[in-house]
Design brief:
This protein has six helices and three strands. This is Transcriptional regulator.
């Protein structure tokens, strides 16, 4: 197997960060690792996030196929968010970041 050069690794890290998005994405992912959530549940669980920031974050994650948005035909409409297989694959990395943060932050 060919060894990756530094340029390739940096490019891959940059791609991953672009897919995940901003700081709120990590907190949204943390909540969704626990299971499917509604918008209001995410809003309540993530301290300090505005509805606009949450909407933007969810749209970004959905666009990058990390999150799937399911709409149920109720009145008013029920919308739930859950992780795709691609989103679930981030769990190990996020868990390691959490461990690192508790040790070094």
């Amino acid at each position: 197997m060919e060894a990756l050069n530094t340029e390739t690794i940096e490019c891959s890290i940059e791609k991953a960060l672009n897919i995940i998005g901003g700081k709120w994405s990590f907190l949204v992912l943390k909540e969704l690792f626990e299971g499917t959530r509604r918008f209001s549940e995410l809003k309540r669980a993530i301290n300090g996030i505005s509805p606009k920031a949450l909407t933007s974050t969810l749209r970004h994650l959905e666009k990058n196929t990390i999150v799937i948005r399911t709409i149920y035909p109720t009145v008013p409409a029920t919308v739930e968010y859950s992780l795709t297989e691609k989103g679930q694959a981030l769990h190990k990395m996020i868990k390691e970041m959490k461990i690192w943060g508790s040790k070094w932050a």
